[in-house]
Design a protein that fits this description.
Blueprint (H helix, E strand, L loop, with lengths): L4 E2 L4 E6 L5 E7 L9 H11 L16 E5 L1 E2 L2 E2 L4 E6 L21 H8 L15 H19 L2 E9 L2 E2 L21 H9 L6 E8 L1
Antiparallel strand pairs: 1-2, 2-3, 3-7, 4-7, 5-6, 8-9, 8-10
Helix pairs in contact: 1-3
Length: 209
Amino acid sequence: MAGNTFGQLFTVTTFGESHGAGLGCIIDGCPPGLALTESDIQADLDRRKPGTSRHVTQRREADQIEILSGVFEGKTTGTPIALLIRNTDQRSKDYGNIAQSFRPGHADYTYWHKYGTRDYRGGGRSSARETAARVAAGAVAKKWLKEKFGTEITAYVTQVGEKEIRFEGCEHISQNPFFAANHSQIAELEKLYGQRAQILGFRRREAAY
């Protein structure tokens, strides 16, 4: 399977499956001397982790990050950084009834058609859980950009379906489950969620120098 490694100067290779022992990534190209601890990464993982609101999967995972290599005495060494997140709440038996069938709208069929095999337990590598490793790697990159260039990255939802979300301030982003930079329209978004419609969302990313 291709596509597990991305980047050029700062490369990230992710590994692991939704219902395996764990998942993580290898970061290559991070310069030496960057102060880095688990807590620098954990904050972003806590924002992403499942079970934090009724709008996301109710799987309960601590998503506790472990730094296995590439950091010595609190600073990066310039060698590959290995990050690991152990799975603790995978309930594979819940997927037994789809072992011989494909879920509509999921990557089950396309994965099987392309590779001749699939992991039906939560989708394996096709699970959204794989993004946890990317979030961890992004936290490292984000810290380096801030310390080296003073660059801060901010992302927020600007539109859900046809509903545009007005920008009211970045301070609202972490205060609602939709990551919207808005407080007054949250009730409208809750109503859209209640309709259980398949709606397209748009997100805006900003870099401040």
